[in-house]
Amino acid sequence: MESSSPTRTELLLKKTQINLANQGKELLKQKRDALMMEFMKVLDHALRMSNFLQRALAEGQYSLATAQAVDGMITVKSASFATKSNVTATITGTQVMGVPLPVVTKGVSPLRNQFSRGYSIAGVSSRISETAEKFEKIVDVIIDNAHIETRLRRLGEEIQKTNRRVNALEHIVVPALKEQVTFIKMTLEERAREDLFRLKKVKKSIEKNKKLIEQEKQK
User: In the chain, what are the domains?
Assistant: First the structure.
């Protein structure tokens, strides 16, 4: 336990520190609760996105396998080379309870129609066009939700950090301060009892001396 000067000034200081620690603990709890709400919203969104992507990938893989089987690998590869393009996105940021979180904004949409994919419409089948459309949608969703994993990680880390601070205040700092307050109170009370005992002793001594003086006067 940290040594404390057993004075009334120190007692007031420790009581003030306890109040401040309790206030800080409540503020941290509010922050933790707000972060938990945001975390659960992001987690729910991430789960929905994961389910959607799993279905979309399964459909895309099925369409791709069908196109490769019917139209041939060479035809599918030729169409894929023709449709190559850049996917752009802008990364900015926002904050939730002081925690920086990324925001990904899509540039040019990867979704295109069959006339703007770069291949000849007459040279490919509807199966290849359908496959291209399915994978464009997958890329589009991935870009829109690219920041989700980072958000979850940062929110989770901040929640853990905040929870550690709450626990430290609740189970270490405040109890230690209360122990110091108890120690100071006990010391002050002991001093008060000693001072009272000394005063009584001095009073008795004074009264005894008065009696002796009075007796001497009467002689």
Answer: 25-171 (1.10.287.3240)
